[in-house]
Amino acid sequence: MTESAFDTPHSLGYIHSVETFGALDGPGIRYVLFLQGCPLRCRYCHNPDTWQAGQGKRMAPRDIVRDILRYRSFIASGGVTISGGEPMLQPEFCLELLRLCRENGLHTAIDTGGGVPLEKCLSCVDEADLILLDIKALDPEECKSLTGKDNAGALDILNRREQLGRDVWIRHVLVPGITLERSRLERLADFLQPYRCVKRVELLPFHKMGAYKWDALGIPFTLADTPEPSSADLQMARKIFTNRNIPV
């Protein structure tokens, strides 16, 4: 790996954890870096331990890329995904990491919920090969009720990527009684249909596998009594999007 002007002391990032053989966060097998800190408080979050900013292991982009390159043969058809938490809370760190990955021929993706205003993370949005964009809810007030913030940041990112002609995968969690509702899904599908940058919609079934973390942190898990989606629910949701020629 060659020397880079982008690796500077101020860009140290707070790291929550690493997955070296990820198959669920973008195309192919990927090295997934989970950053610490998130401005959203999603009621279904399965990693509330990533919320608190300024915690975790501090690392430099160059050291992380050295580790990534140890797995180059495994991720050759995939790449690197920066997730969280919310990676855009650390935009300088993310930008330097994205550029170092590009220098080393690695495909990059950022998984973001749009909780950070576009003007603070524009360079990262422009630099990443792929954005995995979590649209929590299309209606701003519903989004605020679900996450603590509206969806303006997420939609700004989507519009920026459309302007650039750069790929986006939409992620949407299906929560029975909240987001898993036919009319809401139809509105979301109709909204997304004109976007040429949207290459795929991932409909993610709500689950409770992270509920124990809420208990450990002493945070009430308000969806404890919410059922997980049935196979019929998931089939209905997928059909809404495929009927509009949106890959899921």
Account of the 3D structure:
InterPro entries: Aldolase_TIM, Organic_radical-activating, Organic_radical_activase, PFL1_activating, Radical_activat_CS, rSAM, rSAM_sf. Activation of pyruvate formate-lyase under anaerobic conditions by generation of an organic free radical, using S-adenosylmethionine and reduced flavodoxin as cosubstrates to produce 5'-deoxy-adenosine. It catalyses: glycyl-[formate C-acetyltransferase] + reduced [flavodoxin] + S-adenosyl-L-methionine = glycin-2-yl radical-[formate C-acetyltransferase] + semiquinone [flavodoxin] + 5'-deoxyadenosine + L-methionine + H(+). This is Pyruvate formate-lyase-activating enzyme. Its cofactor is [4Fe-4S] cluster. The model is unreliable at 2-9 (pLDDT under 50). The chain has helices at 61-69, 91-103, 118-127, 140-147, 152-164, 182-192, 211-217, 231-242; strands at 13-22, 30-35, 57-59, 79-83, 108-112, 130-134, 167-174, 198-205. With 248 residues, it is of the alpha/beta class. An eight-stranded mixed beta sheet has the order 3-1-2-4-5-6-7-8. It is globular, with a radius of gyration of 18 Å. Helix 1 packs parallel to helix 2 and helix 6 packs parallel to helix 8 (231-242).
